[in-house]
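Known limitations

Structure tokens in this collection are predictions and should be treated as such. Users comparing against experimental data should check residue numbering before alignment. To illustrate the layout, the record for Ribonuclease is reproduced below. The input appears on top and the generated tokens appear beneath it.
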Amino acid sequence: MTDAQETAADSPLRTAEGAPPDTEVAAAARTPVPLLEPREGIPPVISDEAGLAEVVAAFAAGSGPVAVDAERASGYRYGQRAYLVQLRREGAGSALIDPVACPDLSAFGAAIADAEWVLHAATQDLPCLREIGMRPTRLFDTELAGRLAGFPRVGLGAMVENVLGFVLEKGHSAVDWSTRPLPEPWLRYAALDVELLVDLRDALEKELDRQGKLEWALQEFDAIASAPPAEPRKDPWRRTSGMHKVRRRRQMAVVRELWQTRDRIAQRRDVSPGKVLGDTAIVEAALALPPNVHALAGLNGFGHRMGRRQLEQWQSAVDRAKALPEAELPQPGQPVTGPPPPRAWADKDPAAAARLSAARAAVSARAEELNLPPENLITPDTVRRVCWEPPQTVDGESVAAALAGYGARAWQVELVTPVLVEALRSAG
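Generated tokens:
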């Protein structure tokens, strides 16, 4: 690390545009320092069992938290698997691991299982890390910490700059990480992403403690670490962009058949579904219900650069949907397990709409007082559920129980219960 890097790394939270207004900082702000190289250089990419064993041993012998990051190939490959894993720990340095060549990292996960893992936006990386055997028992999420501390910009680059005084180069965040071999500039970028993650964690911990929010953050981190894997989404085809234009059940069946055909092809070819067929084309075909390949070729997204064989496979999907009996057509909407969309409340239940309006205003005001986003104080879905079906007796005990039943953490229950009780009572 250069002298300038050491100075910036040792500094307390910086004064900078985008930092929370009440942050205690050094008396004078420092000019951000470009972070150009990892302090020990770019580590070699581990792609064999012998190299992996050495790194596992080094990290097991290291000390303190472990910085963890993963790179995916969203937009290029099917699914959200990891194509590079970056780690750093005191005493071990940094490591870059190729999870394609080393698909089972459970030994690595076990070696650092007792350590606190430091991730930025943990919920984005945890699913792909679980797939390769890495599951934290404790974690610190620097993005979530930034939200709770009141930072308006919580991307890694903004946080590192505003808190530590470094400028990270972010030009390779959206590249195709399935590329092999990975270019050296990409590897440098990847190594730098974990270079100061523990330093950022330490600074944010101090700031959260100063603001009296550290216990809130720890409860949030525990909830993330202990959360079970997300259930597969039911009827994912319904999330096709432009689906709101599709009204008739037969048209919905076309969307479903085209979406499922596209998904099978994308999975087989290991490419992003959008590279096989765009959502716009799917919706166009559903609305037009083309009778043959010639008509299909005239629709946006089908005719240009698409061969006869491809057109025939899409027309076959359309024909299968058109041939379905009425009983097998999809229903207009998904089964509702919670409250209806808020826009429908005024018609369905005006009293509930009044409760929701009062509750939203109260939560927003309380969040502003605490200098954190309203959605981090309490999830909007929880507020909607309590307002749609409030307790029979609106008091502190019943509202607190309702919030806890919907998954609110203890700190959220304590802070939100009083304002929700008042809002529900005022709305009648």
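For this record: The chain has 20 helices and eight strands. The first strand starts at residue 33 and ends at 34. Please report discrepancies through the issue tracker.
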